[in-house]
Amino acid sequence: MKVLLLGVTGRVGSRMLPALLAHKHQVVAYVRTPAKISSEATSKLDSVVVGSASDSAAIKAAILSHNCDAVVNAAGLAPMTGLTSQGEFPAIFAAVVQAALEAGRERGSAPIRCWLMSGFGVLDSPKKPCWKPGTWLNLMRFSSIPLFPSHKRNYLLIKSHPADSLAWSLFCASDISPKNDTPQFPPSADASGSNLVAKADAPPAWVEKYRTVPLIGSYLNVMAQAQSYYSVLENCVDFIAADLEKGLESEWIGKRVGVKEKSKIK
């Protein structure tokens, strides 16, 4: 596929590029400051488009003018709480969604395939918690944890669009950390999406460890297992790049995708 990549100079996007190239995708970088792209990365790009990641018209023009089949958004950083400014992240997410929708409609053929970064907190609880309406136990549900609130708002925005108008997927990791200090061209041989187990809309390989503890069991269960869902960044970007090879046949379209390192499954 030909992929428009936003955020190529950041921690995630800079490692997304070698993963996309390893899976034979052509990559068009959409970036605010092209001078920040390394010379090695620049030499491997199909082209570079300069623009703001919150400018939906410019993103749409880049998709159409470069005949991109897919968009990967790795731009922006979600604040942890709603107590501070949400920065550009919500505006970037909304701009990418709007641009891909309009580009798909204008092209008049297949919808644009989109992968967007999200968070663990938008995943559903694997099982319904033990609560009654009106009790504080409703706060134990994953979707109600008040961290990274922009992720939840972004999900509410994108889920309103059917897959036949926008072929979206949200990557919902708990935390992702790079294995290597710098992007590797090509990626190291042990960097692979096959190192992950994935599940649509809920955390994979979840264990109901503390559910029987009165009142706080569900909360303890989340807190005890959250770190076991930390993932290797290079594995995550390879998972996305590999999935893009499936095009519109991907099983993850219209889904929130949770992942876990296979090495952490007991």
Account of the protein in words:
The chain has 266 residues and is of the alpha/beta class. It has helices at 13-22, 39-44, 56-65, 89-107, 149-158, 217-225, 233-244, and strands at 2-6, 26-31, 47-50, 70-73, 113-117, 167-171, 175-177, 196-200, 230-232, 255-261. The strands form 2 sheets. An 8-stranded mixed β-sheet has the order 3-2-1-4-5-6-10-8, sandwiched between helices. The chain contains 7 helices and 10 strands. The radius of gyration is 19 Å and the shape is globular. β1, α1 and β2 form a beta-alpha-beta unit. Mean pLDDT is 88; it is low at 129-144.
Please name the defining characteristics of this protein.
7 helices, alpha/beta, 18% strand, globular, 10 strands, two-stranded parallel sheet, 266 residues, eight-stranded mixed beta sheet
